[in-house]
Design brief:
The complex is a heterodimer of chains A (348) and B (172). Chain A is mostly helical and 348 residues long. Chain A has twelve helices and two strands, in the order H-H-H-E-E-H-H-H-H-H-H-H-H-H. The chains are: A mainly alpha (348), B alpha+beta (172).
Chain lengths: 348, 172
């Protein structure tokens, strides 16, 4: 068997992976800055404005502080699991970006470079799986701390993430009935030719949005890290960069959820009248990336906006919303979508 | 039971209708309110760069005044200390010696004059009590300090600059 290594392919993918990781980290970093700015504006304050112009160096200062803080591992904690927790949270947060199509393909010389690390045909399934794994970071961290508040928060986190994964999956199934494909690239290309899926699946999008808030442990579903009842939640015993990893993982998750919402329901890198502009391929691809990021930043803003508007749910309300409202609604949405798809295929 | 003010209204305990049960309209309303706040005028003053404007009658840190020739006006009569409701002012008097006429305006002067800014309530009674127009209240407030003794202001802190000397000479 002839076996050769396509070096260009390898370099291309390596570059793409580093770029995607770098951009995710950068966006997550500046989301912390954005979060504080949005919080301040909503509360009629100014927000960080001392470090650099508009406080733009604030995330660097925060990161530096976290790096140089003393690292405390409680004496009764399981050391291995204690370190594994935040590492796993960070790993799962970074893994999801692999299947997202960041743009169409670029033509460099005679090579066509796809701006997607891996176009696997089970793209969304991969994301669901990795997000589901993310709960281990919370669980292990909360359990290994050997602190009852951490454990309580970890239990809450685990049950919350599992409860909200169900309606999220059900909402996505309705979407896949329309798209007929699990590959994110296909879904985007379909929206490029047809209409955005938000038009066909408004209820599905609403369910997905609510579940995304819950999966990212953001307000109003931030019970695992409820400051006032659990002293900070599952990362109570964590200090220095291990705490930083947990907080950072949350912001990366937020970024990825926003990209995912833009990709699945708002056309991803496609924008209206894209193909009637008469631009050449590379130009169109770059514009597409810009469009994707505009949509993404809007959703990140929505995440923050909601956080500073809506107070936290009580635990029983959270469970009631998940199991008694969202799951039946998602099932109904799925049934109606299925019926419509069948009707359009076969008629009556 | 009779209410005290007649302004009490009973709490609306009707069960929620479908529109209210949806919650989403109320959430969007709330989000519209918070969005509106983003564009409102900020309450914060960028402190070191901007300061909040004070009223023209603002009573801030005290100063000890000099006359046109740069002589201290205070004669250590103690009226300010008597007027002070917080007992923040203490002083020690001394007699002017021959050859010190260019330093002190009258025969008696304050050798030591201290105001404890932690006790002071900035009422301005000292300013009113002073018969020699020696104590005035300025438009600044006491800067922060790490120690209590840092808030006891002596003559070095209170006396205004000599009107006929340069900045470096005044520093001495």
């Amino acid at each position: 068997m002839d076996f050769t290594i396509d070096w260009y392919f390898l370099i291309e993918k390596l570059l793409l992976i580093s770029a995607v990781l770098g951009i995710s980290l950068l966006v997550a970093m500046y989301s912390t800055w954005g979060e504080r700015k949005v919080a301040a504006w909503i509360q009629d304050r100014r927000g960080p404005n001392r470090a650099g112009i508009f406080g733009l160096l604030q995330p660097l200062a925060d990161g530096g502080k976290l790096f140089f803080k003393e690292e405390i591992i409680p004496s009764h904690a399981n050391r291995f699991l204690f370190v594994l927790g935040p590492s796993l949270a960070m790993l799962t947060a970074c893994l999801t970006s692999a299947v997202i199509p960041w743009g169409d393909s670029l033509t460099i010389g005679d090579r066509i470079v796809s701006l997607q690390i891996a176009d696997i045909n089970i793209g969304v399934l991969w994301i669901m799986a990795v997000v589901g794994m993310g709960v281990y970071g919370i669980m292990i961290g909360g359990w290994a701390s050997n602190n009852k508040f951490s454990l309580l928060a970890a239990c809450r986190g685990a049950s919350q993430v599992i409860s909200y994964e169900l309606p999220m999956g059900l909402a996505l199934i309705a979407l896949f009935m329309l798209s007929g494909s699990l590959s994110l690239k296909d879904i985007v290309e379909q929206q490029r030719e047809g209409v955005w899926y938000i038009v066909l699946q408004p209820i599905g999008f609403l369910i997905f949005l609510i579940c995304a808030f819950a999966e990212c442990n953001r307000t109003p579903f931030d019970l695992p890290e409820a400051e006032n009842e659990l002293n900070g939640g599952y990362h109570l015993e964590y200090s220095s960069m291990k705490l930083g990893f947990y907080l950072f993982a949350e912001y990366i998750n937020m970024f990825i959820s926003s990209v995912l919402m833009a990709t699945l329901y708002f056309g991803g890198y496609a924008f209206p009248y894209m193909d009637s502009l008469g631009l050449d391929g590379n130009m169109l691809t770059i514009l597409g990336i810009v469009a994707l990021f505009i949509k993404t930043f809007f959703f990140i803003f929505v995440f923050m906006w909601v956080r500073w508007t809506i107070p936290r749910f009580r635990y029983d309300q959270l469970m009631k919303l998940g199991w008694k409202i969202l799951i039946p609604l998602a099932l109904l949405n799925m049934l109606v979508t299925g019926a419509v798809v069948l009707f359009r295929q076969y008629g009556i | 039971m009779q209410s005290l003010t007649n302004r009490a209204t009973p709490v609306d305990r009707r069960p929620m209708n479908l529109w209210e049960k949806l919650y989403l309209p109320a959430i969007f309303k709330g989000m519209a309110i918070t969005l509106g706040h983003i564009f409102k005028k900020k309450a914060t003053v960028n402190y070191p760069e901007e300061t909040r404007p004070f009223s023209p009658v603002f009573r801030g840190l005290h100063i000890l005044n000099r006359d046109e020739e740069g002589r201290e006006r205070c004669t250590a009569c103690g009226l300010c200390a008597v007027a002070c409701p917080a007992e923040a002012i203490t002083m020690e008097a001394a007699e002017r010696l021959p050859g010190e006429e260019h330093l002190y305006r009258e025969e008696k002067y304050a050798a030591r004059y201290e105001i404890n800014m932690l006790r002071c309530i900035f009422c301005g009674f000292c300013e009113e009590a002073c018969p020699k127009q020696a104590v005035y209240m300025s438009e600044t407030f006491a800067p922060s300090n790490y120690q209590r003794k840092g808030f006891i202001y002596g003559k070095d802190d209170l006396l205004i600059a000599h009107p006929q000397k340069s900045i470096t000479e005044n520093k001495k």
